[in-house]
Write a structure and sequence with these properties.
Elements (H helix, E strand, L loop, with lengths): L14 H11 L4 H12 L7 H4 L2 H8 L9 H31 L4 E4 H9 L10 E6 L4 H10 L3 E2 L3 H4 L5 E5 L5 E5 L13 H5 L2 E5 L2 E5 L2 H12 L9 H11 L6 H10 L3 H14 L6 H9 L2 H13 L26 H6 L5 H7 L5 E7 L5 E7 L6 H4 L1 E2 L2 H9 L8 E5 L5 E2 L11 E5 L5 E5 L3 E10 L5 E3 L7 E9 L4 E3 L5 E4 L5 E5 L4 E9 L5 E11 L3 E2 L9 E7 L1
Parallel strand pairs: 2-5, 14-24
Antiparallel strand pairs: 1-2, 3-4, 4-5, 6-7, 8-9, 8-20, 9-11, 10-12, 13-15, 15-21, 16-20, 17-18, 17-19, 17-22, 22-23, 22-24
Helix pairs in contact: 1-2, 4-5, 10-11, 10-12, 10-13
């Protein structure tokens, strides 16, 4: 068993998508019950694209079920749309694969087309926007010539092409996409890194043309990494893909997936994806295997533990298992008493616990009336209880604080008399004030058209009140910017957020007055080259922009290059 009594940082998906996966992947009668709940609550006009892509498979499974009746026509229309689109894409791609084979260029189908070909009854059940094909790095130029002869064109300008690190994106007159890869993953463009993928490739036939596809473990690895590359805009269809692949191979080798992830330095990303997979489809990957991965990899374990300890989310840790990482020290040798008083030794665990670069958390339970019945917190959080919660009796709260049971690391759980504490009814704070500082002298950025960049930001709670967020609240705190022309004219107010504090189930999260947080803010360069100004801001979603409270924040000069 690992140091984790439970895994805290499991990504979450909306309830509607969880029901979709249960309807598609669960046995009867659970699959039908989930389908019924999904059909009862779904609004097709507000359906996200991630869910939309699963509709063809859902319609295929339930088209004859009476439960399908209210939306059968709508679902059938979606099914036929994707059936037509996939037929066009398949026809265009088939011609390319034929031409590559005729030219003697070794190629390898992967991602959507390979998965659809091997694991779906019909390509219509697995919608995709493009096709991904891997060739040897030395064959890229010849493969491009093949594509160009068939009417495909590079999707972007030539300036971007020189910056492509793992693939070139092509498009044809039918608006179909073809991604020509010389490395399988954006994150690992290293010579020779894909040799194992080529060695494990499987031969198959696609409408009379012999083709190679990635092996099942490699398809799963690519799915996991692509699925978690952009968590804020993640499509969850990869979960269905992975479940189908693993269930089709009783001898599926998870060790091979983990080995390849290690070679590429991508184990944290893969582990996060596996946590979500285990939550959504528990039978695909035993949770004991996840514990074994952590137990056997000290670097991964330290990386997973750090945010939990810094954010004080430690109630679910077995601290007796942390000594091998140096987080909880072995008993120290005797040292002079005066020296110990002047320079008290602190364990790594204690230093991390007191780190103020991230929000702090207090775990709680509440009864059906919303009254707090139990808290787990660190001793340095005690002075904030009177502000973080509604308090019925200040004297009783002081008595509660006085009997707080400190353990050796200054934390513990305490029972609360019902009626003494409760969560605040809303997320509005008495006063708002913040300061922002741009880290590393990054006040000017050069970013290519339509590409992404990151800027280090220091956020300071410059008010006398804690910023807080309740479990289940939508009022996340984040940094963002407003896009302005070089002369200061506002071009676009709303830009992507980079959140530094979100609601977590079972926790009250907060940033204390004077606390400095570190975060990375994403910049999305406009589609038109030129000089811009980015006016930084802090946002509390559903509540306000801090700049509306008479606060001035720094600017970033953005030079968007062709």
């Amino acid at each position: 068993m690992s140091a984790f009594k439970r895994f805290e940082d499991v990504p979450e998906i909306p309830r509607a998508q969880q029901l979709l996966f249960e309807a598609l992947l669960s046995d009867s009668p659970k699959n039908r019950a989930s389908f019924q709940e999904w059909m009862t609550n779904i609004d097709f006009d507000a359906l996200d694209y991630s869910s939309l892509r699963l509709i063809p498979a859902l319609f295929s499974d339930f088209q004859d079920d009476p439960l399908c009746e209210p939306h059968r026509g709508r679902m059938k229309g979606i099914y036929r749309y994707f059936q037509f689109r996939e037929a066009l894409l398949a026809a265009d791609t088939h011609k390319v694969m034929e031409a590559l084979s005729a030219a003697g260029i070794e190629s390898l189908l992967f991602k959507g087309r390979a998965i659809a070909l091997k694991f779906y009854r019909s390509a219509a059940l697995r919608p995709m926007g493009d096709v991904d094909v891997l060739v040897r790095p030395g064959d890229v130029a010849r493969a491009e010539q093949v594509l160009q002869k068939l009417g495909w064109q590079y999707r972007y300008g030539e300036a971007k092409k020189t910056r492509d690190v793992h693939s070139h994106d092509y498009i044809n007159g039918n608006k179909n996409g073809f991604d020509l890869h010389w490395f399988a993953l954006y994150e690992s463009p290293v010579r020779g890194i894909d040799e194992g993928i080529w060695q494990r490739a499987e031969q198959t036939e696609w409408q009379g043309v012999p083709v190679q596809t990635m092996g099942p473990e490699d398809l799963v690895l690519i799915s996991l990494i692509n699925g978690r590359r952009e968590p804020e805009a993640m499509h969850h269809g990869w979960i269905y893909d992975v479940a189908l692949i693993v269930r089709s191979h009783p001898g599926f080798e998870w060790k091979l997936v983990w080995h390849e992830a290690g070679l590429r330095g991508l184990r944290p990303v893969v582990f996060e994806a596996l946590l979500l997979l285990d939550r959504v489809v528990p039978d695909v990957l035993p949770v004991r295997y996840l514990h074994s991965l952590v137990a056997d990899d000290p670097d991964l374990r330290r990386r997973l533990l750090h945010p939990l300890i810094v954010e004080n989310r430690t109630q679910g840790l077995d601290r007796s298992r942390l000594t091998d990482l140096g987080i909880v020290p072995e008993p120290r040798r005797a040292i002079p008493r005066l020296w110990a008083r002047l320079f008290p030794a602190r364990s790594t665990y204690e230093r991390w616990s007191r780190d103020t670069s991230r929000p702090k958390h207090i775990r709680y339970t509440a009864n059906t009336a919303g009254e707090i019945t139990w808290l787990y917190l660190h001793w340095h959080q005690l002075p904030h209880l009177a502000e973080l919660f509604k308090v019925a009796d200040q004297a009783a709260l002081q008595h509660l604080v006085a009997r707080y049971p400190l353990d050796s690391e200054g934390e513990g759980g305490i029972t609360v008399e019902p009626g003494l504490l409760a969560l605040h009814d809303n997320d509005i704070l008495p006063r708002y004030h913040a300061r922002l500082r741009i880290g590393g002298g990054q006040s000017e950025q050069n970013v290519p058209v339509s590409e992404l960049a990151e800027v280090a930001i220091i956020v300071v709670n410059d008010s006398p009140h804690c910023w807080r967020i309740r479990s289940g609240s939508p009022a996340s705190f984040g940094v963002s910017y407003h896009l302005c022309a070089e002369d200061g004219e506002l071009r676009q107010w709303d830009q992507p957020r980079s959140y530094f504090m979100r609601a977590r189930t079972g926790y009250l999260a907060f940033v204390a007055p004077g606390q400095h947080l570190s975060c990375k803010m994403k910049i999305h360069a406009p589609e038109q080259a030129g000089r811009y100004r980015l006016q930084l801001d802090v946002v509390q979603e559903t509540v306000l922009w801090f700049s509306g409270q008479n606060m001035d924040f720094p600017e970033i000069q953005l030079n968007v290059i062709p």
